[in-house]
Amino acid sequence: xxxxxxxxxxxxxxxxxxxxxxxxxxxxxxxxxxxxxxxxxxxxxxxxxxxxxxxxxxxxxxxxxxxxxxxxxxxxxxxxxxxxxxxxxxxxxxxxxxxxxxxxxxxxxxxxxxxxxxxxxxxxxxxxxxxxxxxxxxxxxxxxxxxxxxxxxxxxxxxxxxxxxxxxxxxxxxxxxxxxxxxxxxxxxxxxxxxxxxxxxxxxxxxxx
Amino acid sequence: xxxxxxxxxxxxxxxxxxxxxxxxxxxxxxxxxxxxxxxxxxxxxxxxxxxxxxxxxxxxxxxxxxxxxxxxxxxxxxxxxxxxxxxxxxxxxxxxxx
Lengths: 209, 98
Hints:
The complex is a heterodimer of chains A (209) and B (98).
Chain A: H1 4-22, H2 29-49, H3 57-85, H4 93-114, H5 119-135, H6 143-166, H7 172-200
Helix pairs in contact in A: 2-3, 2-7, 4-5, 5-6, 5-7, 6-7
Chain B: H1 9-12, H2 14-25, E1 29-30, H3 31-38, H4 42-54, E2 58-64, E3 68-74, H5 76-97
């Protein structure tokens, strides 16, 4: 005879097994911290040189694209290593699902970047599209990724609103650098640190970090 | 009154329950991925899969990629049996609470 306690334990086991099998973390916690620190450093440099002669919209876009490519490559290497440690293929069903959700908003962001809108508008678009890309994985992403996505969308909207108020008096490069540091810098560091803490406390699985 | 004997003994065994749970979460699973996820030995996993296959709960396909690979999936009968099993567990909890 199966008792209620045994039934409850069995259902919990089933749920945790299913979550482990279906949850996919597209942004590794360690890479998020690295990316966040790089973003804060680049943002600080941008703020410091915003009024200098060497600063231009093109330099701003180019330097952030280089950081984005570098961090994406590191993220891919880390995800590959984690998959290898679990004896799973790098391009797993979870990754395929994640890519299917992430690629359209990211491509939209790339297309709009090519049009070179004013820097504060561009930064707003980057935040919104990145946030939407993360949210597109929410059906199978851990809660921390969903929170990160929501934070980017909210901060993106606030940045757009703030720029519409500050436009007459603020330096666009200064504003853009500060917004990038706060979003891609600080949010990623918070996400990375809280995820690693959750893994240590056993609230999230090591494989997903 | 609940009939506890209705609980599928074939699924209720710990190892087979884990296998059924994973198979229910995706369309199909390669043997190596199942093994890694469940941390089972080859022999143990094969035995459980064979039992489930004989009951008609699990089907498999063999394919030749760079090496032979066997993929496992739940059959319609297996999926239905798993759903009935889950419902019965929920019923047991509800009955004990009411």
